[in-house]
Amino acid sequence: MKKSRRQRVEELLLEEKDILCILPFERKLGFSRGIIYKFIKYHRKLSTSEIKKIDHYFQEVIDRYQEE
């Protein structure tokens, strides 16, 4: 069964939390400080718009990687 956008993003953030630089990542996406940190640490729910921004960012990174 195909995972939803929310599931993909949440799983990726939790799996890669050790290598993500969270504060610069939040700044790059234009989020308030602590949005992603609070999701990872306290399991606070991310809004749908935040999920869409994160998903779109990762898709762009993957596309740029595959083009090279």
Features:
mainly alpha; 68 residues; single chain
Please characterize this protein's 3D structure.
The chain has 68 residues and is mainly α. It has helices at 5-15, 22-29, 35-42, 48-67. Helix 1 packs across helix 4.
The overall strand count is: 0
Rg measurement, Å: 12 Å
How would a textbook summarize the main sheet? none
The tally of helices reads 4
Write the SSE topology:
Elements: H1 5-15, H2 22-29, H3 35-42, H4 48-67
Provide a concise account of the structure shown.
The mean pLDDT is 94.
